[in-house]
Every structure is written in structure tokens, then in C-alpha cells.
Amino acid sequence: MFHKGELAYEPLPLPDRREMTDAEMVAAARAVHEDMRTRHTVRDFSDRAVPEEVIAECVRTAGTAPSGANHQPWHFVAIGDDAMKARIRAAAEAEEEKFYAGGAGAEWLRALEPIGTGAEKPHLTTAPWLIVVFAQRYGVTKDGERYKNYYVPESVGIATGFLIAALHRAGLSCLTHTPNPMKFLNELCDRPEHEKPVMILVVGHPAEDATVPRVAKMKKPLEEILTVRRG
């Protein structure tokens, strides 16, 4: 994190060393894959309550992500208030109607057809929590001095990935939602001008009749996403 003034480099012994055999590493890697492949993006949520502590602990995990110069240029706003969720839904659906009416362009709309999305977003009010992810384009000290952040999109993207994984491990489902424009979220969430809203995570338990589009299970095989250059 940013520290005003001099902060000297001080190496510390690696605090959490993990020693595993090659076989144990392979088994662990496969176990992670087996767990993460059961993560599904859903749009059908239950209104079953989720304890705030669960959300807080998952965000705490997101906060451990690596970032440019360790500035941690992110902020998360967890919204469980029904009135705020309703305002977000109304604003999002107003933009989505324009999007699906042709604003997105024919190619994009065709690409979305197998996903089954539309302008209506009931999950924004049904799910117990919305987490708005903000990227801090620059930082501001407590006395109002501005400082530069580095690799902001990359850092926030990694932290969001940590958050999605943590939510899954906690037994929850989520949906990544990116209404455009999202500027209204600054005012709604009382966040400063230098923070840019980049995503809403809809979080909760899946509904009893939740479905996923068949195409969502079509993942690229390993040979299409991995190239190995052996020495």
C-alpha cells in the first residue's frame, strides 16, 4: 500500500512456505481444477440471506491479491439494501433496453443469443448482495495529496478473480454484470471521482430452478489455451 514519505526496502523471510512433493503438487493442482470447474455463472438467484461476515471474508481474500507497487488500487462496496439494489436495477435496465434494441450492434447481439441474456435483470434485486468493484485510477492521501497507481486494470482484475474464487469456495454463486455507463454507481455508493466502477458482482445462492446455458459448459481444451516451450 502507498506510504507517504520514505519507506525503505526490508526483506523478510518467506512467512508461509509450502513444501510439497511433485506428486502432491499435481494432486493439489487437479483438486483446484475439480473444485473450480464446478463454479457456474448463474442468473437465477434465491432470496436466501447470506451473512455479511461471509461477504467480508471473501473481500478480505480479494485484498490479498498482488498489485502494481503493492498500491492495492481497489475498493469494494457490498450492497444488501433493497432500495439501493432497486435503484441499480432500474438504472441498469434502462441502459440494457437500449443495448438490446440495437445499440450493441448485430454481431454482439448474435454472440449473446446462446447465452440467453436480455434487458430484464431481476437478479439485481433478488440476490441478497451486490458487490460493486471500483478501480482507483489514482490514490489520494488523507491530507488530499494525489499519488500515482500502477497497472490498475490488471491489479483490479486479479483481485476480482480472487473474489470470485473465494465466493465459490464459500458455497456461493455469482454473476459478473457490467452495465454501461456505470458512472451512476459513484454517487449511489458515495465513492470519489477518482474511483471508476468496473463491475457489479451479483452474489447469493442459486434458485432451485437455476439453469446455465449449454454453451457455457463448452470450454476450450487445454491444448488451445496452453503453449509449453521446453528447454
From TrEMBL:
Coiled-coil residue spans: none
An example Gene Ontology molecular-function term: oxidoreductase activity
Domain Nitroreductase: 37-205
The entry's keywords: Flavoprotein, FMN, Oxidoreductase
Xref: InterPro entries: Nitroreductase, Nitroreductase-like, Nitroreductase/BluB
PANTHER family: IODOTYROSINE DEIODINASE 1, NADPH NITROREDUCTASE
The protein, known as: Nitroreductase family protein
